[in-house]
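tool_call predict_complex ligand=adenosine-5'-triphosphate
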Amino acid sequence: MIEVRDLHKAFGKVKAVDGVGFRAEDGRITGLLGPNGAGKTTTLRMLYTLMRPDRGQVLVDGMDAGTDPEAVRRRLGVLPDARGLYKRLSSRENIRYFGRLHGLDEATIAARTDALAAALDMGDIIDRRTEGFSQGQRVKTAIARALVHDPRNVILDEPTNGLDVMATRAMRRFLRQLRDEGRCVLFSSHIMQEVAALCDHIVIIARGRVVAEGSADELRAQTGEDNLEDAFVKAIGSEEGLMA
Ligand SMILES: Nc1ncnc2c1ncn2[C@@H]1O[C@H](COP(=O)(O)OP(=O)(O)OP(=O)(O)O)[C@@H](O)[C@H]1O
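tool_result ok
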């Protein structure tokens, strides 16, 4: 489980994150939805210990990211916004390299790689050098690499960015599988339809703050709108940057 309490982060005069708090439970897909510049990436970066908050607390399975970042990192699998791969290495070698960084033995790495390659349908790319990979092939490799240590909590920054319809559907299936295994899945998106299709719990963020949260039904009830799109627009206060 991931719990965020009163997170703040400013860049000079820009208050990127201005008091964000929410819980992402196990066995649930939680979506962080907000327009461009809302503070989603900055929030996620503080969650996965890439950036220190000015104020506030991040707890992962009860571990405090501020005082015990190593323990937090072990419990997290992260697909960051920058998905750099080692282009001279094959997909399998990229995954293996991360497995070794996590201190896993070779047999465990091999077994996890096979399982992830099957779940993500990577049979045709697993032993190809990643140089020249399509966006979808890169994302699959980056996700498999992020999950090699079998983390309980999975954070993905805009996981379907740049993917075609088939790849997006496959990604959604995969995230549901992670959820059904009891993991905590947290992802960000600026695309309402994406979040509506996938999430059990939606946290709407705008101008660095949480402006509404709940299931799709709860959000409709809270805003008094029948249509989810209208509910989002009402919660955010504008249509800017919301649509695909
Ligand atoms: N390293 C940085 N230096 C200066 N400003 C930053 C930095 N990172 C983020 N910001 C600013 O903080 C605000 C929030 O940015 P962030 O990337 O978290 O938004 P986002 O919700 O992820 O947006 P998008 O959907 O466009 O990726 C923006 O105004 C952005 O310009």
